[in-house]
Design goal:
The structure holds two protein chains of two kinds. Chain A is α/β, with parallel strands linked by helices. Chain A contains ten helices and ten strands. By secondary structure, chain B is mainly α. Chain B contains nine helices and no strands. Chain B has helices at 2-32, 43-58, 61-83, 91-130, 133-139, 144-183, 187-197, 200-226, 232-263. The longest helix of chain B is centred in the middle third of the chain and has 40 residues, at 91-130. The radius of gyration of chain B is 21 Å and the shape is globular. The chains are: A alpha/beta, B mainly alpha. The interface between A and B is medium-sized, with 21 and 12 residues.
Chain lengths: 267, 267
């Protein structure tokens, strides 16, 4: 059963079409990786899945609620079942890590403070930060911040967990640790996981299915093997790391030569 | 010619759009204010309000006091140099007392708070926007207006009138010091004359103005933060814009209120 269903999604900014009639079903319990190069529209798609922006047309249903047309109260209800780890972690710098994780529990539940402390400790332990709860976000490394963001996203035990560029800005070892954490969460909590990334090794490590975006449209959607064997030229270009516009070395050399000649002092 | 008319029309629409946004934000904040109140609201929000009160009010007291003392001296000296020629030196007391309670107290306080806190609101919210913290609040089903703006507005509504009273007192004391050193007027006699020269409506009109100024400063500062688009440079621009626009609007509002009070016989 599809937990997230996208139908004919069209998004335009200043007359420029960013997402062009997207259709996608994300099944409950699967890890869907939205893969694509810079500027292909994957972050825009994610913002629409989270209900942060309204599309020009089309619909996005999360757990059966069309979040493009629902009331603010319905949207809030849907959002409580989604946990998000942002690219920049987006932790509140004025709060300690444990207060960051406790925030949604304090705001949305009637749990006693001692129970909240216990839940927070458990969430931090899951991501390996049980000893760092009293530290402030600015005292953490990049990888620790991302793990703290995951702990915060897990606070309300969401059904859908969303990662925006989890490996961005991290060294390969920390990025791999984060991949393992995503796999662990999926195995332990049977969550639906949506990951936006352009990192191929990470995508092929964690994905059940991959949706490949190119210029605002899906060029391929399928399992890892289907994507690997895809004959679509855009998919092949991305997987084989072929540059879009090959630099014309002779042309650039000629340009520089011409420029330097024009700068030479007249004899 | 057509271009000039187009530019004027575009600027007018932009300004109307800005004023409209301010009003929409004000209404949304008033609806969310209950959550920031003690006893009936959310205790974390009230805690945030108290923290804001310390930053807006207590931390600004030395600056506002010093500005009030300097302005009190300036007003007394400038007034004395003219009034002495007509043998009306004792009117300096009325000038300082009425000038501060009706006009200078609220205005000086507003300018100080605008420079300190208005800019700080814009920078804080702008940074939150750039680092996706506002988005993370939304996806955690928390409203930024309620979570960020309501405590700031409540704090400004309480502290700006209090600071205005402090400003009035220090300005009048400065006038008393001048009178003591220039004419050997006994402090007790000075304060008795001050109480004779001001009436309750002077104090009330000054406090009404200060509440309006607090509204302008808090909302312009926060709106500038919410309107940040781009990176850190946009945060810098929003900070400058917050101070410039709030100071301008405070002076415009002051003129409007003074005219209303003048024509309705309140001053």
């Amino acid at each position: 059963m599809a937990i997230v269903s996208i139908r004919n999604l069209v998004v335009e900014y200043d007359g420029r079409r960013v997402l062009d009639g997207l259709n996608l079903d994300i099944q409950s319990g699967e890890t869907m990786v939205l893969l694509g190069g810079s500027g292909c529209g994957k972050s825009t798609l994610l913002r629409h899945i989270l209900g942060l922006e309204r599309p020009n047309s089309g619909s996005i249903s999360v757990k059966g609620t069309d979040i493009t047309r629902c009331t603010p109260a319905e949207l809030k209800k849907v959002r409580r079942s989604i946990g998000v780890a942002f690219q920049s972690a987006a932790l509140f710098n004025s709060l300690t890590v444990q207060d960051n994780v406790a925030l949604t529990l304090r705001e949305h539940t009637a749990l006693a403070p001692s129970i909240i402390d216990l839940v927070v400790w458990m969430k931090l332990a899951v991501v390996g930060l049980a000893d760092s709860g009293r530290r402030f976000p600015q005292e953490l490394s990049g990888g620790m911040k991302k793990r703290a963001a995951v702990a915060r996203a897990l606070a309300l035990d969401p059904e859908v967990l969303v990662f925006d560029e989890p490996s961005a800005g991290l060294d390969p070892i920390v990025a791999a640790e984060l991949d393992e954490l995503i796999l662990l969460l999926k195995e332990a909590f049977h969550m639906t996981i949506i990951v936006v990334t352009h990192e191929l090794p990470s995508a092929f490590r964690i994905a059940d299915r991959i949706a490949m975006l190119y210029n605002g449209a899906f060029s391929a959607v399928g399992t890892m093997d289907q994507i690997r064997s895809s004959g679509n030229p855009h998919v092949r270009q991305f997987l084989d790391r072929v540059p879009d516009n090959m630099a014309q070395a002779p042309a650039i050399a000629a340009h520089f030569k011409q420029y330097l000649q024009s700068q030479e002092p007249t004899q | 010619m057509a271009t000039v008319i187009e530019d004027v029309g575009k600027k007018t629409i932009d300004h109307l759009n800005y004023v409209g946004s301010l009003n929409i934000q004000l209404l949304a904040t008033l609806r969310a204010m209950k959550s920031a109140l003690p006893f009936v609201g959310n205790r974390y929000r009230w805690k945030a309000s108290v923290q804001q009160m310390l930053q807006i009010g207590v931390d600004a007291m030395p600056m506002v006091s010093l500005m009030a003392i300097c302005t009190g001296f300036i007003l007394a000296m400038q007034g004395a140099s003219e009034l002495r020629r007509f043998g009306a030196l004792h009117y300096v007391i009325d000038l300082v007392a009425v000038g501060f309670t009706r006009e200078l107290g609220p205005l000086i306080t507003a300018i100080a708070v605008s420079g300190r806190s208005g800019s700080s609101f814009a920078a804080e919210i702008g940074t939150m926007k750039v680092t996706e913290e506002l988005d993370s609040l939304r996806v955690m089903a928390l409203e930024p207006i309620e979570f960020v703006l309501a405590p700031k507005y409540l704090a400004a509504l309480i502290t700006v009138p209090c600071l205005t009273v402090v400003c009035n007192v220090f300005g009048i004391v400065a006038g008393g010091l001048f009178m003591f050193f220039s004419t050997r007027l006994a402090p007790l006699l000075y304060f008795r004359s001050v109480l004779d020269s001001i009436v309750l409506s002077d104090v009330i009109t000054g406090l009404i103005k200060s509440v309006a100024f607090a509204t302008i400063i808090a909302h312009v500062g926060c709106l500038e933060g919410f309107r940040v688009r781009g990176g850190p440079d946009a945060v810098g621009r929003s900070t400058t814009s917050a101070v410039v626009k709030s100071t301008f609007l405070v002076i415009v509002a002051d003129a409007v209120f003074t005219a209303i009070f003048y024509f309705t016989g309140k001053s």
